[in-house]
Design brief:
Layout lengths: L7 H10 E11 L14 E12 L6 E4 L4 E7 L2 E3 L1 H4 L4 E4 L5 E11 L6 E6 L6 E6 L21 E6 L5 E4 L3 E4 L2 E4 L12 E4 L2 E10 L5 E10 L9 H19 L8 E6 L6 E2 L4 E5 L10 H17 L7 E2 L6 H18 L5 H17 L14 H6 L4 H17 L1 H15 L3 E2 L1 H12 L3 H8 L7 E8 L5 E9 L14 E10 L5 E11 L3 E3 L11 E6 L6 E2 L3 H10 L6 H16 L5 H11 L6 H18 L5 H9 L9 H13 L3 H12 L11 H13 L5 H10 L3 H13 L3 H13 L5 H11 L5 H4 L2 H15 L2 H10 L8 H13 L5 H31 L1
Helix pairs in contact: 3-4, 3-5, 4-5, 5-8, 6-8, 6-13, 8-9, 9-10, 13-15, 14-15, 15-17, 16-17, 17-19, 18-19, 19-21, 20-21, 21-23, 22-23, 23-26, 25-26, 26-28, 27-28
Length: 861
Amino acid sequence: MPGENLSRDEARERAALLSVDGYEVSLDVRSAVGEDTGDGPRTFRSVTTIRFRCNEPGASSFADLLAPSVTAVSLNGRDLDPSEVFDGSRILLEDLSADNELVVDAQCAYSRTGEGLHRFVDPEDGEVYLYTQYEPADSRRVFANFEQPDLKAPFRFEVRAPEDWTVWSNGVGERQDGVWRFAETKPISTYITCVVAGPYHRVTDSYERVFEDGTRLEIPLGALCRKGLAKHFDAEDVFLVTKQGLDFFHDHFDHPYPFGKYDQAFVPEYNLGAMENPGLVTFREEYIFRGKVTQASYEARANVILHEMAHMWFGDLVTMEWWDDLWLKESFADFMGSFSLVGATRFTDGWITFANRRKAWAYRADQLPSTHPVTADIRDLQDAKLNFDGITYAKGASVLKQLVAYVGQDAFLEGARRYFKRHAYGNTRLGDLLAVLEETSGRDMGAWARSWLQTAGVNSLTPQVVLGADGRIEELAVVQEASVIAPADHPELRPHRVAVGLYQRSQVGALERYARAETDVAGARTVVSELAGADAPDLVLVNDDDLTYCKIRFDETSLATLREHLGGLTDPLARALCWSALWNLTRDALLPARDFVGLVLRFAGRETDIGVLQMLHAWAESALVHYVAPQWRETGGRALAELRQAEPGSEHQLAWARFFATAASAPDDLELLKGLLDGTEEIAGLEVDQELRWAFLEPLAAHGVADEKVLTAELARDDTASGKRHQVRCLAARPSAAVKARAWEQVVDSDALSNALVEATIAGFGQASQRELLAPYAPRYFEAIERVWTERSIQIGMDVVRGLFPALQDSPETLEAADAWLAAHEGAAPALRRLVLEARDDLARALRGQACDAAAGTSAG
């Protein structure tokens, strides 16, 4: 039988043959506590009963299970020999009846990589915490099943756990005779079942809703975290956003929340931001803030809460048939996260964050050689794992924002309501959604879908302005170009609903909009007749108000205006769009990176939106590390380290402090950081809490100022799981050949570290100030990655291949080495090749940017 990488064809064949009536899953996790014997992986008992039908009696199929061993297998009362039917990933099922019962008794392994049933030991108090994470296909690490989204079924879970633990699952549970038993779920897919167990701290609340017909809905709410984080847990704000979201979605979806209770668990060492398990959503515990953070962090958490809540309808109630249509849940949840954030919460500037941050993720992904349509071609589970990307999430959400502008908000929401009612607890494809949208909008959705969902690449829109003799606009046109990456493969010119804004400088220096036209752009050139006769603009902003998904370009006059007056733009969304466009110009080697850094230096201090400011800091750092000419890095770094203007005690000051830590390298800057830590230096209004202490320690460690003794003392001060992750990152950051060798061995040659410590070690290993020290690892990377991909879990493989790519060895030689590896490994796993190809493309883009910046420096000289 084939291995664990289930293909689409296999899934379709199995779905055509089988239908599932229900699961009963019994887990015994009492083995999670106590000393580890060290004799093989720590395991737990998993007993699964599956009742299913086969429409071709006598046929054969298989169930999925990833487990160290299987004790017993029974099919329709016949005992099967596990050694004959189980190959480590699949259980062969032969001579099936019309109605079947499969019972599998297995020893499954606890996870240390965040996949399956993850086991975490809190270093602070020794307590053990468990949680599951399955998407796209890791429930088979916990119980035997048919691991594909279209074989939905009701689930009943029971869990035996240590006496002092509490256990949660998708349904309401109670403990009886030492066993936690949970109510049967609605029909759901395997990947959204969930178990959380341990001595978690829990806070409760409830949500009530009375509908127009008088019916009442009451949803019990819970919020969980480790005991060690309880003192930091602001559950009241989590509940506030939760209730606001439930109100919003009930107002707009006309379908009551379908899964009973609503628990939200913040869990340790989590690979994702969050996961939409119905009734028991799991989040990474970093959303519990141990120190002072900006409002952008609270906004981001609220967005994630609402994103996962939207999945209760888009994804859980109605689920894609196969991972090709992953966008049917992720794009919608990403869009609905921002839509509800703005419509229901205090974060009314959520669309600014979306334009500036989420779309940046999409633009990068859509210009890689691995770009794909929103509706993707997902051949197997490894493809599916990699397609949780900026296209499926952020581009898809941007396309939906464009769709709302295209068909109208009312038609869009009515389409969603019909979609839920028509397909509740079922599975869908693209055509099912398009059908309801055609009904509600009266538009032909086929052409729109072909352009926006079934082609790849991002268009650029550039204004062309012709002025008449009277100084007014004689003609204004929008020129559309196809993707600059592999244009032969992605030549699509799409229909765009856009707003074109005209801006002029006022007498007081403000840059304000004085005219706007909303129009449909189609083809290579579209004349915006509504703006003919308007006064000559200082700035033309195509895609004003961010209605469509495109790269904004500028005419020469507009670009010159931004160079001198960007800070004068009074509208924060327009300003965010201009910053994003300037960053895209930098990445495309059309604007020298030092010019972008100069704009940040000149205008970032006037940025009012804290989320945009923090994004500017990240882009400026990226420009300095990857895109400026190497000989200008030191000059640019010194300039950025001086970017300190902020009101004492403000969010802007906190953002500056964190950015300063990333830019500091000069002796005086390092001395300031050291003084802030030991109390000999002080900056008015700046509170150096524990999280900020770790942020300051990393550059000190990377530049040899903070040694192992200092970092050990800091861990003693913050002897927590969070503190341990910070210390591991700082230890790996030290400028020592022995340190780098040790970090490499721990990540590449050993699987002893958990997923969180692998991530921390990789983050510390790759310091931009240590290019020469890291040079020997470039060839070692290409020698090791195929073995790592084969031997380790896909999550760890992705972390290693992405995180250790020698991007800091930014030379043609490294590019050649990547090309040589790709040429010599055409038969390697497609997902592995994709990761290397993406990293290689980022490096090539960086080299083009450096060449552009060097030419600008030569011209200036």
